[in-house]
Amino acid sequence: MGTTTAGSWARTISNIFIAMKQALLDVVPLRSWTDIHIGNIRHALSLSALVLWAASLSGCGVGYLWHVTLGQATILAQQRPVEDVLREAQLTAEEQKKLHLILAVRHFAITELGLHDSTSYTTFVQLNRPYVSYNLTAAPPDALTPYVWTFPILGQMPYKGFFRQEYAIREQRLLEEQGYETYLRGIRAYSTLGYFDDPILSSMLAYDDRFLINTIIHEMVHQTVWVKGSVSFN
């Protein structure tokens, strides 16, 4: 990477960090940030620098990576300890019951299944929307061959995630204009594969108990083992 290119990317990353800070302050006032918020956001900013640099090599759009980085950082900025949420008792009795269930499943997965021990699923984020993100898949109309996207860190993936539905619909239409058949679905939970400690999302509380148990263990397995580019194995 030449000096000019490196300088351009440094300015781009600096500008993105400034914009991200302002966007996060619009969501969560600085006075309400805790050590959890600050530590995770610092982690998000550091990782975004790596991802944006990798984007310059992979050809993945910076605009898209800005969108998902800001979306993830916003979630991290809104998380609160589960103990505080339960103590305030602002959730319904059923929702509180599911939070207790998640804590029990997390403990079982760590102590009995040997999955990665972290602070994942010990914090809670109230989303105020039914889905945390949207996944887009596509394929030619005459073949069972998925359209594949290439991402920094993750490698090749047969789906693309978006935090904002309108962005997903925009890309969906572009693919359909190219002749692909598409499927867009809402997502209630996902894993950051151990790069961050994942919070419990309010969208997850819509699951019944059996599906919720399966989801927590499923996502914790992703945190424990993930092979880049091997979607079927994962």
Automatic annotation (TrEMBL):
InterPro entries: Aminopept (IPR014553). It comes from the Bacteria. The lineage of its organism: Bacteria, Pseudomonadati, Nitrospinota/Tectimicrobiota group, Candidatus Tectimicrobiota. It comes from Tectimicrobiota bacterium. It holds the Pfam family Aminopep. This is Aminopeptidase.
